[in-house]
Design brief:
Elements (H helix, E strand, L loop, with lengths): L3 H21 L11 H11 L9 H41 L2 H18 L7 H8 L4 H58 L2 H11 L6 E11 L3 E2 L11 E4 L7 H8 L4 H9 L3 E4 L5 E2 L2 E11 L6 E6 L7 H20 L3 E6 L3 E5 L5 H9 L9 H12 L8 E6 L8 H13 L2 E6 L13 E4 L1
Helix pairs in contact: 1-2, 1-3, 3-6, 5-6, 6-10, 7-10, 8-9, 12-13
């Protein structure tokens, strides 16, 4: 029986297979020909050849509907696969049993086969007759082979029936709602392009430029060359030595140099290192200099995205519509670029949704149909974003906060953690809607205002 993670992984395979088939006209090698849902996906694309010439939105909508159907089928398949695996295990136990154990199990085996299979699938009565005159091991071997094949075929047959039973209703729903969904999606797209700020956000987070460097401030400490300190006053001298270090001459030696009659003596003593000097050497000092430089630090070409969407009551009305508009375009871009995307919705408390899983789209659509209500807890939201940044999948992600920012700035410890992630490569952005508060202007890398 598949768990939630296994279903998500299967959906990811079908999601990639859809794009692969659209591009190359064949299914990828990891989807075998006997895969029922893979065949359904292929047939659906073949029945819509106009997708290549239509608006790309049609393909996106069809893909979303196909993925929702496949997700529903995988969930309906679970009890079938559970029963199938249970029976397969029982077949193995029966095959490994000795003759006495087989006799003890025979009543249940006979009952199971006669209840589940037709004579043309497993002729159990025929095998009973053979047991009277033939070697039991040979008879049981043939019986187990037929039973094993019939078990696999029964599970497949039940799955086919479920697909066919739901296919007609699914196709009818797609036809009935397809045009309305297309018009709604185009309406959102038109609204999106009416706000240059939203277009710029998707451009920046999309990282569609071939190369891009982000500037950052870096504090650099440099040191001036070593310089001698001023000569030590004579009163601090403890002894006298000889040499030719002119910075430590005794006053009497400078007197010799000043007199023309003894000037040659000075040069002789200098050449022979016989000048009298103060013994202690001046302390060597360096001067520390601190300055800021603007350096270039390369970013990843593509990376994950974390979107934090404020769903508090203050965001209802126009802010809610603008937020939904941007969110859907960001997710559209993320799906196109096959980038992981994590949504954090926050009001009284934060809730998280991993949108990198194809099966999460139906949950997202249900969420977007709910009104925005409640208060705001920005601190909890940022902590959840930081938590995701410390996972392998979302390290160095772009973080976008969509809000009116009617909540206090992060606490000191939270700001320190944001700085740590920023130094790793994360960028924190914001879209401020219908608000003039400025508490986050100096906290985020960039903030757009609508």
């Amino acid at each position: 029986m598949m768990n939630e993670i296994e279903i998500a992984n299967r959906l990811k395979e079908y999601d990639d297979a859809f794009d692969f088939y659209m591009e190359r006209g064949r299914m990828p090698d990891n989807i075998p020909q006997e895969d029922l849902l893979g065949s359904f996906l292929q047939q659906t694309i073949d029945e819509n050849p106009q997708l290549e010439s239509q608006d790309p939105v049609w393909k996106e909508l069809l893909k979303e509907e196909v993925m929702k159907f496949l997700e529903a089928m995988l969930e309906l398949f679970q009890p079938i696969e559970q029963a199938h695996q249970r029976e397969k295990s029982y077949i193995v136990v029966f095959a490994d049993a000795d003759i006495d154990q087989k006799r003890n199990m025979w009543k249940e085996v006979y009952s199971t086969i006669t209840r589940e299979y037709a004579p043309e699938e497993v002729n159990i009565d025929g095998y009973v007759e053979q047991m009277k005159s033939q070697d039991l091991d040979a008879v049981f071997s043939s019986l187990l082979s037929d039973w094993d094949k019939a078990c696999d075929e029964l599970a497949r047959k039940k799955k086919v029936e479920i697909i066919e039973f739901n296919r007609e209703r699914w196709e009818k729903g797609v036809k009935e709602h397809g045009n309305a969904d297309f018009k709604q999606r185009k309406k959102i797209e038109k609204a999106f392009y009416s706000y240059p700020q939203l277009v710029d956000i998707v451009r920046v987070i999309g990282r569609e430029q071939p190369e891009r460097d982000d500037e950052y401030d870096e504090t650099v400490r440099s040191y001036m060359p070593l310089l001698p300190s001023p000569p030590t006053p004579a009163v601090e001298i403890e002894q006298v030595s000889v040499g030719n270090d002119l910075q430590h001459l005794l006053p009497m030696e400078t007197t010799i140099l000043a007199d023309k009659g003894t000037e040659d003596l000075f040069y002789l003593k200098y050449a022979s290192h016989q000048l009298q000097l103060f013994a202690n050497k001046p302390k060597q000092e360096s001067v520390e200099k601190t300055e800021k430089k603007r350096n270039k630090k390369p970013r990843l070409e593509k990376g994950p995205i974390i979107v934090s969407l404020d769903t508090s009551g203050s965001m209802s009305g126009k802010p809610e519509k603008v937020a939904r508009c941007l969110l859907l375009q960001l997710l559209r871009m993320a799906k196109k670029q096959k980038r992981k995307c994590f949504l954090i919705t926050f009001s009284v408390r934060a809730e998280c949704m991993d949108l990198s899983r194809p099966g999460s789209w139906s949950r997202l659509n249900r969420f977007l149909n709910n009104p925005f209500t409640g208060g705001t807890d920005g601190e909890d939201m940022i902590k959840n974003a930081l938590k995701m940044l410390n996972t392998d999948c979302y390290s160095m992600a772009d973080v976008l906060i969509i809000s009116d920012f009617y909540f206090p700035p992060p606490r000191t410890k939270t700001l320190e953690q944001m700085e740590i992630e920023h130094n790793k490569g994360t960028r924190f952005y914001g879209l401020q809607i219908e608000s003039t508060v400025s508490g986050y202007d100096d906290i985020l890398d960039r903030i757009w205002k609508v």
